[in-house]
Amino acid sequence: MTVYDAGPDGELTPASRKFWHDRFNGFGMWIIPFTNVHPSGIGFESPNAFSEDHLENLKEYARISHEQGAKAVIQLAHAGVHADKSMTRGNGVWGQVSYHILVLVR
Prior knowledge:
Layout: H1 14-24, E1 29-36, H2 55-67, E2 71-77, H3 99-105
Parallel strand pairs: 1-2
C-alpha cells in the first residue's frame, strides 16, 4: 500500500494525522506504508526511517495507532530505480543492475 500523505521530509501533516486517526479505528493492526530506509530510495512523500531525526514521527504513527486500539507495523521500502532524483537529497539513485550488464563491465 502506498499513501501520498507525508510532508516533504516524511513528516505527518495535519491531513495525514486526520487520515490515520480515521483509518486505525476498528483495526487490530495497520501497516504504515512505504517507509523509506535510505535517502537514495525516496520515490515520493512518504515516511522516512533512515535517521534518528525520524524517530519522533514514527513514534507518532505508533501513538495514533495505539490510541485507536490497533498495533502498527512498518512496510520498509526503497524505490530503487524509481526513486525521484529531486527527493534523494543529493544521493545517487540506487537500483538493480542486470547481470548481463555487470559481465560486460568486467
